[in-house]
Amino acid sequence: MKQRIFNKDEAKVLEEIILHRRDIRGNKFLQTPLSDAVIEKILYAALNAPSVGFSQPWEFVIVKEQSIKEQVKQSFNEENQKGATYFKGKKQKQYLQLKLEGITEAPVNIAVFYKKSKDPVLGQTSMKETGLYSVVCAVQNMWLMARALNIGIGWVSLINPRKIKRILNAPAENQLVAYLCIGHVVEFLEKPELEIIKWESRKLMNNVIINNKYKIQKHENI
Ligand SMILES: Cc1cc2nc3c(=O)[nH]c(=O)nc-3n(C[C@H](O)[C@H](O)[C@H](O)COP(=O)(O)O)c2cc1C
Question: Where are the alpha helices (DSSP H) in the chain?
Fold first, then answer.
C-alpha cells in the first residue's frame, strides 16, 4: 500500500499549528456563525483520533441553542464562584478578573462524552482509564484541526457534569469529558493567557524529562 510521506515543510506546519493553538474564551469569540462544513471537519478530526482497542468510545452533542448554553453558563457561574475560594489574596483577585469560558459568546458548543463499552475492549483490560484517555485524544484532534482552520476552541471544565448531563438529557452511562466552545476569533494570543499574566510559566524540558529511570526516591512507600 502506498504510504504518505510528509516532507519537512509539512512537519513544520504541524509544529506551527501545535505552537499557535490557544484556549479561547468569551472575550475573544466573534458572533460570526460557524458553517456546517467547518463543524464537520472538526468532528471528522475527532473521529480519526486513536482509541484503545479502536473502541471509539465517544459521543458529541452539538449545542447551538442559546437557551441551552445559558443553562450551562449558570452551572459555570456556580462552579467558578466556588473555584475562586481555592485561591487567596492577590491570586484570588487575579482569578476573579479572568474570563474562563465563552459558553454564550461562542456560536457553537460541543459536549464530548465518554460512552463505556459494554463488551471487553482490547487493551483496556488493565488500565480502565484508557477509555477516557481516548476521548481526550479526540478532543486534542478537534483543537488542532480547528486551529488549522483558524477557528478557536475553549475547553470549559468549571461546570458540574451532573447538571450538564441533565441539561443535555444525556444517558446515565455517559461521562462528560469536555465542554468545548467553538467559533471564529478576534485573535489568537501568541502565548497562553495564564503565561502572559504570570499565573504559570511553561515548564522546561530538562525539568520534566527523565532518562531511563527516576533516581531512587528518598521516601519510597512501595
Ligand atoms: C482539561 C482542560 C481543562 C481546561 N479547563 C479550562 C476552563 O475551565 N477554563 C479556561 O479558561 N480554560 C481551561 N482550559 C484551558 C487552559 O487554561 C489552557 O489550555 C492553558 O492555560 C494553556 O493555554 P493555551 O491552551 O492557550 O496554550 C482547560 C484546558 C484543559 C486541557
Answer: 8-20, 36-47, 66-84, 89-97, 130-148, 161-167, 193-196, 205-208
Residue 10 within any structural domain of the chain:
no
Number of domains in the chain: 1
Q: What is the CATH number of the domain that holds 50?
A: 3.40.109.10
Q: Which domain holds residue 28?
A: 18-199
User: Using a 6 Å cutoff on CB, does residue 22 contact ligand 1?
Assistant: yes
Cα(23) to centroid of ligand 1, in Å?
A: 6
Q: Which atom of ligand 1 is nearest to the CA of 156?
A: 8
Cell of 137: 485524544
* pLDDT of the chain, 222 residues: tens digit per residue: 799 999 999 999 999 999 999 999 989 999 999 999 999 999 999 999 999 999 999 999 999 999 999 999 999 999 999 999 999 999 999 999 999 999 999 999 999 999 999 999 999 999 999 999 999 999 999 999 999 999 999 999 999 999 999 999 999 999 999 999 999 999 999 999 999 999 999 999 999 999 999 999 887 665
Looking at the domain assignment, is residue 208 inside a domain?
no
pTM (predicted TM-score): 0.97
